[in-house]
């Protein structure tokens, strides 16, 4: 094989691989207004906090899953409680709760059925990052990629001291759920 | 040479493409409101309205309680606790983040009151607004049987409240107040003006010292004095407990201005407390 032929072969292979990568960009889904929610409880009372500013990106081509929320956008319905929560989370120093990981189970992007998936990665908040495996569902819809997932964190693992309210103490276990529809991003 | 150069270029492009796909998104903060909304922790300081507003779709339930004079027959009256002087039960709801309405009933003269408050301006560090200004009005009706026409039982009060949180620790408010009684006791229609002053010293996120003074401008009604109150707020997240000593037995502005016959600094004060519980609807 002459060097000219070899050059052609390298360019051909390279072009093919690049085309695959660029095709991958077409499999990227994003949102900036997903819903994130947590539940907190003290004896005889519980409340939820939620935000509709969850930012998420899923890239099916390389299976990466990236979500974050600015904790300042979480609202519990009582302003003073929100302020206490932000202070507890040291929100000025650590403004984001975030997850970055990969799909650890197969997902058939040609199907429009809701499919159970597992995602593994790192969940970070309050300056602490920990490995996390999350079960949820992914579904391709007309509007994009619909995501629902939930998991529970232990505040102690993230070095968050549960705030005390007089004689009560907030439960250390906090269930978290997210739901969002991520729109397909146009190919570049 | 040309072959290896092309190979490296292809690999480089490949790396750029793959890296671009796998990179984490850049984290971006969401712009949040910069208004100062914790100059005071409750819509009512002790008896004075504040520029604190109940957020939309939140309900504030209040129980306001005052006892008898603590220093009169202190032991036999157990520092006034044996005499429940006045209890006001109230509900206030935020219609918007700036506008609230409320209703209450006081056991003294069975006064039923409705009130409203609107935030004209809110202290804002980014918008260079140095003070909060709210307009407040209430209407009270004496419902205790007194053989006088209903119109004689009506009174109103209106305040323009200016407040500023000067620092993390200190907040101050001034509220020019107008009060009107269609008929006050036996002396007929009355108009009164007062310049309310209130302050809070935030000791921590849980505790604050409060004080308020209601000097009447011009002539006082016979036998009445300027009301003064001194209190402590305890914040628990959902509740704010307010414990205070006050000269007045009233929890409604126009009566505080018109009907305080005790002199706080002469030792004629009573104990009282307010309980505020806010519910998200």
TrEMBL record, chain A:
Specify the domain of life of the species encoding this protein.
Bacteria
| Lipid/polyisoprenoid-binding YceI-like domain: residues covered | 28-183
Spell out the InterPro entries in the cross-references: Lipid/polyisoprenoid-bd_YceI, TTHA0802/YceI-like_sf
Q: Name one Pfam family in it.
A: YceI
Gene3D superfamilies according to UniProt: Lipid/polyisoprenoid-binding, YceI-like
Query: Which SMART domains does the record match to this protein?
Result: YceI (SM00867)
Q: What is this protein called?
A: Polyisoprenoid-binding protein YceI
UniProtKB/TrEMBL annotation, chain B:
Q: Where is the DUF5777 domain?
A: 43-279
The record's InterPro entries line, in alphabetical order, gives:
DUF5777
Top-rank taxon, per record? Bacteria
User: Pfam families annotated for this entry?
Assistant: DUF5777
Full protein name: DUF5777 domain-containing protein
Q: Which organism is it from?
A: Fodinibius sediminis
């Amino acid at each position: 094989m002459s060097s000219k032929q070899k050059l052609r072969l390298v360019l051909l292979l390279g072009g093919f691989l690049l085309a695959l990568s660029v095709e991958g960009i077409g499999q990227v889904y994003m949102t900036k207004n997903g819903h994130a929610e947590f539940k907190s409880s003290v004896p005889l009372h519980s409340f939820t906090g939620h935000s509709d500013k969850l930012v998420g990106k899923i890239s099916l081509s390389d299976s990466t899953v990236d979500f974050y929320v600015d904790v300042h956008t979480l609202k519990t319905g009582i302003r003073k409680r929100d302020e206490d929560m932000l202070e507890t989370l040291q929100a000025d120093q650590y403004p984001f709760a975030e997850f970055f990981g990969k799909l650890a189970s197969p997902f058939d992007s040609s199907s429009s059925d809701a499919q159970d998936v597992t995602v593994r990665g790192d969940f970070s908040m309050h300056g602490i990052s920990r490995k996390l495996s999350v079960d949820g569902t992914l579904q391709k819809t007309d509007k994009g990629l619909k995501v629902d997932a939930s998991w529970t964190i232990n505040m102690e693992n993230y070095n968050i001291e549960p705030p005390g309210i007089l004689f009560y103490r907030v439960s250390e276990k906090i269930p978290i759920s997210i739901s969002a529809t991520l729109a397909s991003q146009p190919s570049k | 040479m040309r072959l290896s150069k092309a190979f490296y270029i292809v690999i480089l492009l490949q790396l750029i493409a793959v890296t671009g796909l796998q990179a984490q998104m850049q984290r971006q903060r969401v712009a949040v409101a910069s208004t100062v909304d914790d100059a005071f922790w409750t819509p009512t300081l002790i008896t004075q309205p504040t520029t604190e507003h109940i957020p939309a779709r939140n309900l504030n339930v209040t129980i306001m309680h005052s006892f008898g004079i603590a220093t009169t027959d202190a032991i036999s009256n157990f520092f006034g606790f044996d005499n429940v002087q006045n209890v006001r039960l109230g509900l206030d709801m935020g219609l918007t983040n700036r506008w609230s309405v409320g209703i209450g009933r006081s056991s003294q003269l069975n006064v039923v009151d409705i009130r409203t408050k609107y935030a004209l301006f809110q202290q804002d560090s980014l918008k260079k607004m140095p003070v909060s200004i709210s307009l407040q009005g209430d209407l009270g009706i004496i419902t205790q049987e007194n053989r006088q026409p209903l119109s004689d039982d009506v009174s109103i009060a209106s305040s323009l409240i200016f407040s500023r949180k000067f620092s993390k620790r200190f907040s101050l408010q001034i509220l020019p107040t107008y009060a009107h009684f269609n008929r006050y006791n036996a002396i007929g229609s009355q108009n009164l003006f007062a310049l309310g002053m209130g302050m809070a010293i935030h000791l921590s996120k849980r505790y604050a010292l409060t004080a308020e003074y209601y000097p009447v401008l011009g002539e006082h009604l016979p036998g009445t004095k300027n009301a003064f109150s001194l209190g402590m707020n305890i914040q628990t997240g959902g509740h704010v407990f307010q414990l205070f000593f006050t000269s007045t037995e009233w929890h409604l502005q126009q009566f505080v201005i018109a009907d305080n016959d005790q002199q706080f600094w002469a030792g004629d004060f009573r104990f009282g407390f307010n309980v505020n519980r806010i519910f998200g609807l």
